[in-house]
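FORM 7B: Structural annotation worksheet

SECTION A. Query
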Amino acid sequence: MKAKKRIFFVIDIVYFNITTIDLVYENTEQLLVIFVIQIKNIRIMKNLIGIDTLKAEILADKLNDLLANYQLFYQNLRGFHWNIKGKEFFELHLKFEELYNDAVIKVDEIAERILTLEGEPLHTFSDYLKTTEITEAKGISNGVDGVKITLQNFFALINKEREILAIAADANDEGTVSLMSDYIVQTEKTMWMLNSYLK
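SECTION B. Predicted structure
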């Protein structure tokens, strides 16, 4: 009968703390192969669409943050649309409607992307208010003030979109990359136009 061999491993892999394992096994070679395969399987866990599960979780969290900000942005735009007064009423009333119609589409797209990544989208205003960087704009009736706040809100959104784009690229998540890239291009143009209006 072969003498049993004592094997001592120190493992240091991404996403895991350094762990020590002290095992007794008759066949050192076989144990090493089994052990490496098990570690590989842990390390490359993928979700349904083939994205690393840990990176998908991070992306879902960042997208939930973006979702919360878009919900507040949308509500601000509705308020501007309803309450704007003065000579620019007709022009800005229509512009704010155009912007909130676009924002509500993005809210749905972001929520569905979170679900695709196997996350759960935030869906209560209490959660949105706890998460969002964009604040409520209450009682704004001056058109210029409404445009300035909208521009500030877009600045917050585009920074978040760029951050998500970088994380998604690192995770090889082409779906989220494409979505954020489209948003950024559109937002940049809208920001330029709103800034020109204020000059």
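SECTION C. Observations
Helices lie at 28-43, 53-83, 89-116, 125-131, 143-170, 174-198. The beta strands are 5-11, 19-25.

SECTION D. Sign-off
Analyst initials: ____
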